[in-house]
Amino acid sequence: MRRSASEKMELIDLVERTDLPVRVTLRQLGIPPSTFYGWYKRYLGGGFDALHDKLPPPRPRWNKVPEKVRAEVIDLALKKTELSARELACHFTDERRYFLSESSVYRILKAADLITSPAYVLLSASDRFQHPTKRVNEMWQTDFTYLRVIGWGWYYLSTVMDDFSRFILAYKLGPTMATTDVTETLDEALALTGGAERPSPPPAETAER
């Protein structure tokens, strides 16, 4: 499936913001890790423009953004630092009734040195655990399933699953994907299993026997 540069940027932003492991997020989105890291490498090297599958040929700058508009974009970006280039483009178009593409906003911000590198670099993860579980409740997995509802936006299904039995212990559907959502789902799982009352595990030497 061929994706536009805007779609790739949206997915990169989504993966960077989630609290979940990259491998889990990509699996839920149905994106092969090799494909995602290819996009991410191009993005780190060349920014938004590098996400285009094929750069358009040079053309006359008849549509160059006026200096007054560039100044207004920079002013808006400084006031709303939480917005991405895509969100700024939409906000500016709605508020000022002047259309600006995401790529134009990105170039303006980059020229003004307002585009920074990510605070961290995503690392590839292994496809399987080196030490698989051998009993129930030895380890739980938390996960999010992404559900895009047209007209409503993204919804997230938070689940807690026992790694050994693959049994879903608890789940919660909501419009956010924050640490608190995972915590609430974990609390439900603990209430179901009585995890808060479980005794401490035996010493390592006893467990090995």
TrEMBL record:
Gene Ontology BP term (one): DNA integration
InterPro entries registered for this protein in UniProt: Homeodomain-like_sf, Integrase_cat-core, RNaseH-like_sf, RNaseH_sf, Transposase_IS3/IS150/IS904
Integrase catalytic domain ranges (all copies): 128-209
Gene3D superfamilies the UniProt entry points to: Ribonuclease H-like superfamily/Ribonuclease H
Pfam families: HTH_32, rve
Alphabetized GO MF terms: nucleic acid binding
PANTHER family: TRANSPOSASE INSF FOR INSERTION SEQUENCE IS3B-RELATED (PTHR46889), TRANSPOSASE INSO FOR INSERTION SEQUENCE ELEMENT IS911B-RELATED (PTHR46889:SF4)
Name of this protein: Integrase catalytic domain-containing protein
Source organism of the structure: marine sediment metagenome
